[in-house]
Amino acid sequence: MEQLAAYAVTEAVSRGRLHSEPAPENRGEFQRDRDRIIHSTAFRRLEYKTQVFINHEGDLFRTRLTHSLEVAQLSRDMARALRLNEDLAEAIALAHDLGHTPFGHAGQEALNACMKEYGGFEHNLQSLRIVDMLEERYAAFDGLNLMHETREGILKHCSLANARALGEIGRRFIDDTRPSLEAQIVNLADEIAYSNHDVDDGLRSRLITLEQLDTVAIFAQYRREAGTHWPGLGGRRLIHETIRRMINAMALDLVARTRANIVAAGVETLDDVRHAPALAAYSGELGAKLRELKTFLYENLYRHERVLHVMGMSQRIIAKLFATYMADPGLLPPRHQERVAAGKARAVADYIAGMTDRYAAEEHRRLCAPNAS
Ligand code: MG
């Protein structure tokens, strides 16, 4: 294997784990992190959580699990191209969506509104809560006891108030320093993955059309290129040939610009990475094209009336469940009841956030609308 760049995260420069453990035998520390994430309960539940399309709308759409796998694949490829720590990038990518509520962004907004007087709800912070506290699998500690750099990558954003409460892991938001390049790359791999798979799922669901997408420069460009290379090609194959070209163009551009930024900033060590401006970036031209695509998706897919309708229903489910458990915490499962003493609202939010789309809908039916058929 090619040697890592001097600014990559390595075990030697890592700040390690909160609880010290014997070193793993046949794998590295960051591989161990990845393995712990894959074996977690929260990871398995990603299969039944969605971002845009609710789980019961069809089996063809991305779930948070397949999304996370796509982000991991892109992150690994780009990390390898930049000679960064692939295992760390993969671990961050697989964990990046663990804290999401059921029903995508609508669910997160609803739960945040319910938690307004109790410190709010934020999915990044929830992902960290899961790997630091909520997973109950190990005898010696709560959570997964991950490496500092994996946890840092999971906590993408954080308010200053929350950062202060978090201590060491929140420090960079107060000091205004950057996370590792591995974390920066995963953040943008996430954007590349969802922007492209939402085009695919949006077309498949017929909520958006090829004619509409042809008004978006980057899509029109690569659809034309695919059509020139494969005259007469149509249907799903043409869509896929277009999307794969978009993904490839974005990944290549990101790697090239990031490499140039590293050189221009004179970055040589991980510490340099932390004190430089954000280094992982697209070129100006590609960045503008990607913004245009994202605006298109926002206006035509995420705010499509059919999506908004389902989101509205989902928000009512979350709000009703929250009110129901707050009124009677005895309805919570025993392990969540144990957390009520430390804060009832947070215990309720942890329970609801952990639900899959269909479990939340079933619980709502059982508790809040028992006579409805
Ligand atoms: Mg994501």
Annotate the secondary structure layout:
Elements (H helix, E strand, L loop, with lengths): L28 H10 L2 H5 L18 H18 L4 H10 L8 H11 L8 H12 L13 H7 L5 H7 L4 H5 L5 H24 L5 H4 L3 H13 L5 H30 L5 H6 L8 H19 L2 H23 L6 H4 L6 H11 L2 H12 L5
Helix pairs in contact: 1-4, 3-4, 3-10, 4-7, 4-10, 5-16, 7-10, 10-13, 10-15, 12-13, 16-18, 16-19
The structure holds magnesium ion.
The site of magnesium ion (MG) has 6 residues, from helix 3 and helix 10.
Care to describe what's here?
The protein has 373 residues and is an all-alpha fold. It folds into 2 domains: 29-307, Orthogonal Bundle (Hypothetical protein af1432), CATH 1.10.3210.10; 309-367, no CATH class. It is 62% helix and 0% strand. The chain is built from 19 helices and no strands. The chain has helices at residues 29-38, 41-45, 64-81, 86-95, 104-114, 123-134, 148-154, 160-166, 171-175, 181-204, 210-213, 217-229, 235-264, 270-275, 284-302, 305-327, 334-337, 344-354, 357-368. The longest helix is centred in the last third of the chain and has 30 residues, at 235-264. It starts with 28 loop residues before the first helix and ends in a 5-residue tail after the last helix. The mean pLDDT is 94. Magnesium ion binds at residues 67, 71, 96-97, 190, 194. Magnesium ion (MG) binds at residues 67, 71, 96-97, 190, 194.
In short, what is this structure?
With 373 residues, the protein is mostly helical. The protein is built from 19 helices and no strands.
